[in-house]
Amino acid sequence: MVALIVIFISGLLSLFLAFAKKPWLVLLTASAGLIAGGISLFTQFYYQYDFIHYEGLKFDGFAVAFGLIAILFTLLVVLTGYSSFKDKPQHTGDYIALLLFSLTGALCMLSFTDMFMFFLGLEILSIPIYVMAGSNKDDVRSSEASLKYFMTGAFATGVLLFGIAWIYGGTASFKLDEITAFIYNAEGTHSSLIYIGLLMILSAFLFKVGAAPFHFWSPDVYDGSPHIVTGFMAAVVKLGAFGAFMKIFSVTFAGLHDFWAPALSVLAILTMFVGNLSALKQIRFKRLLAYSSITHVGYALLTIIVQSPDSAFNLWAYIFSYGFSTIGLITVAIIIHDEEDRIEAFRGLVRRNPFTGFVAILGLLSLAGVPPLMGFFGKFLVFSEAITQYPWLVAIAIINSGIGIFYYLRMVILVLQKEDDDKPKTPRHKVPVLQMIVLAICALALLFGGNMLIF
Amino acid sequence: MSSLEIIATVLGGLTIGSALMVVLSPHPVRSVLYLILTFFLISGNYILMNAQFIAVVNIIVYAGAIMVLFLFVLMLLNLSKDNEPKSSIKMKIAATFAGGALLTVLIAALKDSVILPKTEMLENQQGMVENLGQLLFTKYVLPFEMSSILFIAAMVGAVLLAKREKQIIE
User: Fold this and answer.
1) For residue A438, with 0-12 CB atoms within 10 Å meaning exposed, 13-18 middle and 19 or more buried, which class applies?
2) What is the second-level CATH architecture of the domain B3-125?
3) Predicted ipTM?
């Protein structure tokens, strides 16, 4: 709770400090607020103290573990984005504040105990992102992304609310533990209202995480939004949505596992194939990232389908590795700064700028799941947990990883290749210090984080 | 059937009827007017459920403010038959299928549903402002305060999107 307030207030402060027209002041406030929020989140959990008595939010181990990486990802995104925020000093505060507000919503979605807080958290998470997607007003595609995301997102929220209403009709409660108790006590004689509500909430969640067949918004929105926002959506928004997904389905609706698990497994398979096969033909980098994120959602859904005490940790590990790879790659794309955002612009990166190229290769290989990197361990944990209960699902997931390696490796080769001699040479990129720090953190995490996950 | 049940049935039927007309009427302005009627009827339903405050707020906010906004947007949009997007016959068939399937499932679920026993009879002061405020500032104070974060985010966002960028004239 304290963390939530700290982060919200630092967002407000950065909103008002922007009047001073000193972008570094805003950056300092925001980072200080994020670090303070992380520390207070951890200490509150560690020492079990609490100033305020409240009903509706509970910061248990699950919320703290996911919340800490959400804060870390936001910090990285803000640091990378600083160089582009700085160009419009009058808006630096607004952008950073909106990102922090969105993070508040993500924390709320990780710790809710009743449907009110869940709904509020979801909206606080999404609404700033609708705006941020359209923040590049000179670009038509950015406006299109914003409008498309807003329209489809509002529709998904409507379906979600309708679902919650049906659940309330079936169980007469908004509280998660009361709903769980009701489902267990009813022992198969539940009112059919619950099933309908469950399906509606499921489809809204699948929309929010971007799983097929609810994924149509995601390539356009990822492609149109500014790079920073794409990174934030891939890392933090997905994390918040998955956290809430797991809280509601693996815990609250665990009693109805036989009902929703088959449907979800079919959708997970569909998601993996749709993401992978569409990614093969992309020429724009952020579109490729969008389709690859759809595929990764398919793998991560396995942790929700499989019921085991380790599922939460596996999901955490998976998102941890995915977030670092994406943020690293997005940072590289910002450094390359190609107007058209073509994949082709990555050609010869290693020769132009060895360190950036190295991080790009690490990120790509980690997304592909190549052994010593963190992405491999994330995948390994998820698949090894699922293989006893759903061997066929894991088999399909492994086939898909194979397809995925093709387009990731194609990009790795592109990064390593020489530039064409007849074309004018692209000059060396200058990397700002902050982005260098972010790249270094991502590289370290990708290289050594995997061993940490295993032990 | 008690008189309350008769009123509830008639009101419910009227609500569904006017909601259907919103979708079915070909003219957008007529559709909006039917929507206003629907909101009034829904307010009637709220009063039947002892939620007087919500009923009033519903009329003020939805039937008043939002619908006026809707009418303005319609006037600005300059709708005419010519620039109406045509949906292909395939789309129509698919949409009918999807909607029909959803409707079937919903009706089937409602038919099989177990109706929970009625909660204790509400006293008629339940939905008044005083009781609502009492709950809002004690039991539900956290969601109430959280919604202010939502509003501030929405306000900042709206200003950010709507404000015209200063153009640099060289």
Assistant:
1) buried
2) Up-down Bundle (1.20)
3) 0.86
